[in-house]
Design goal:
The complex is a heterodimer of chains A (318) and B (505). By secondary structure, chain A is of the alpha/beta class. Chain A has 2 domains: 165 residues, 3-Layer(aba) Sandwich (D-Maltodextrin-Binding Protein, domain 2), CATH 3.40.190.150; 99 residues, Periplasmic binding protein-like II (D-Maltodextrin-Binding Protein, domain 2), CATH 3.40.190.10. Chain A is 43% helix and 19% strand. In chain A, helix 2 packs across helix 9 and helix 4 runs parallel beside helix 11. The radius of gyration of chain A is 21 Å and the shape is globular. With 505 residues, chain B is an all-alpha fold. Chain B has one domain. Chain B contains 22 helices and 2 strands. In chain B, strands 1-2 form a two-stranded antiparallel ribbon. In chain B, helix 1 crosses helix 17, helix 4 crosses helix 6 and helix 5 runs antiparallel to helix 6. Classes of the chains: A alpha/beta (318), B mainly alpha (505). Chain A: This is Tripartite tricarboxylate transporter substrate binding protein. Chain A: InterPro entries: BUG, Bug_dom1. Chain A: Belongs to the UPF0065 (bug) family.
Chain lengths: 318, 505
Amino acid sequence: MTIRTLSGAALAATMLAAVPAAADFPDREITMVVPFGAGGSTDIVGRIAAQALSERLDVPVVVENRGGAGGTVGTQAAAGMDADGYAITVATTSTHVVGPLTNASVRYDPVEDFAHIGMIAETPYVLVVNPDLGVSDVSELIAMLEEAPGDLNFGSAGQGSTTHLAGLMFLAATGTEMEHIPYGSNAEATTALMGNEVQVLFGSMPAVLSQIQAESIDALAVGTVNRSPELPDVPTMQEAGVEGYRASLWLGLAAPAGTPDDVIATLSDALADSVGDADVAAQLASNGAEALAMTPEEFRTLISEELVTYGDIVAAMD
Amino acid sequence: MDLFANLAIGFDVALSPSAMLYCLIGVTLGTFIGVLPGIGPLAAIGVLLPITFHAPQTEAIIMLAGIYYGTMYGGSTVAILLNLPGTAASAVVAIDGHQMAKQGRAGPALVMTTLSSFMGGCVAIIVVAGFAPPLAQFALRFQSPEYFSLMIMGLLAAAVLVQGPFLKGIAMVVLGLLIGTVGQETISGLPRFTFDTLYLYDGLSFVVVVIGLFGLAEVLRNLALGADREKVDTRVGWRELVPTKRDMKDSFMPTARGTGIGAFLGILPGAGPAIASFVAYALEKRVSRNRRNFGKGAIEGIAAPEGANNAAAQTSFIPTLSLGIPGDAIMAIMLGALMIHGLTPGPQIIQNNPEFFWGLIASFWIGNLFLLLLNLPFVGLWIKILSIPYSILFPAILSFIAIGIYSLYREPLDIFMVTGIGLVGYLFIKLRCEAAPLLLGLILSPLLEENLRRSMLVSRGDPMIFLERPISLIFLILAVLGVGAVLLGSWRASRKPQTEEGSAK
């Protein structure tokens, strides 16, 4: 904070002094921005990571919820915080891929404006259907869609949301048609599926898991490369015959661009160690998320690649 | 019926010393935080959620629930005493409650709030305990067309809510509807009136609008009055603190009707709890024999919305717990808290964790009892707030508003926004335009539009969908009958020589 008020010379002096001090990182509490409201699935995953990081770095990691506009408000704020490692943010498919692609008001670059730290977890999209539809696997669903193109509805958590794009990806991969009905949130879309206003939904795992377990909706496939430990009997899209469909919601950590490399390395090591911990993985799993480790470079590459994949879908949308 | 066996399990859990302690802590914290202007249930739960992480799971949820309804009680208190509502529900209660406070009847108003809330809560608990699973299934039959028709009925409530000149009131509703269009539109995903900033992407924050239009505008009005500010007689004896026999008699049926409306609307995710108070107030204003006093300190105008508000707060746990679907932002936080504590919400929760489910239900009742016991002796204390000199009170109010608003989203712009809206609110007071209908318009706007457009998508453009679905049709018929009654009423009033000022034209 005070750095901004210092003169240029003093600033340079402070920065010189700060370089060796990085070896002491961290020596005070770290603020973790969660760009979604308290109690949501991003918040839960963020808090699990914060707790694990705090144990490994021996400083408190304080979660600060700054929700709004699909996570882009908090992410924009985080991009402008001090690049000293004491401000980090939860970066997700929404905030670092879909938001910047679909929201013209986003002012940050998800690749250039951040120093990426690593991955926490991914949550699969699950293709779920209303049981009254009477289909038991993906091929039956595709057959039904081919017979009556555009008759069925699929729901999403909003136009241009991650769940909408996951649906469009499926339609593109299978060459089928469905009417898109947008809702305000994952919870609303799930309710609509249970009430049969929409017959198909590409839901995020935390939003639909308990309903699948209660058999009030049927899971046909998961969008991840491997089967989900939470739903071992549900095939992946590849196994179900939909080639090239890979979609999941991931959650990682990033710091503002300019955060020193050794600070990022410290954070990244602590994060990788946390994610590799069996207890942390179990906590994540009980919330529908699978622990996933990635180096800063891998994470950065993933974001760049997905910006292209999703960018194509968004471009085809209008 | 296993109702009693189930409740026995529940009370066994809820009456354990630790559960009662956490419940007491929750309602006490909730009440005191709710009394602070600018901090509603959403902010309070958001801020206090981390505290509960360290409590055992059942106790943690009981405490959170206690905070939730404690805050609502506290919110009503400050709405009545200082005209500083923080939620839509307390804005409705403030209409007549604050008038009563000005007339030196703050005591009866606060006691009645407590009693009506208690009654609303108690009845709703029986509904939750007895019929949660079938009601949750019923709620699922509410899809876009049903919600749209329900909102149409809500618009009618707005027409009834209007106190002064009808046209002015309708203009305020329309203004509310228009303000509700700010932000990203769900169906097309396109931003409207956002001035290319992310800040307005989710629309104007509801709390910011309520606090600005009511709280801040009220502070400005009082300051502008200066020495002319109405003196409130605060040296009231204990006898005048309690409602009279007549108050009790007048309030009973309104509370009962309000409770019924609240219990029903609370079950519907998303829409219900927000409009329950408005609908209850509007209905009372139509059916009450005392309707001419509404807006001037009618105790029925407190009893009905308070009963509705609390009943809706209890029954809104039904979809959250038994379907695992949060009805609103507060319930979403509760759901998150359940998951953090390793409980999976959903239909299985009743079978898998019966002690938890029934314990929570029973603790609702205990929490309500605590609130009753806590609030009745405090009424005298709360009223003392009114005797604080305004020169000391108003900076405190402004600070609390600023802290409350900032703590909600940590967004500095919200402070500027609330200031601007406060100035607009003061202008409304000067122009004698009421803010309550605007608020209802603001709540209904996105719900009306989204559900209309979604229904049309589902029906592939056929508007008959609203008439073909029975529940939707019933709401539309009720709306038409309601409009007829309003028109008939104003036609009759226009034929009668006007004896009282302010009666509908």
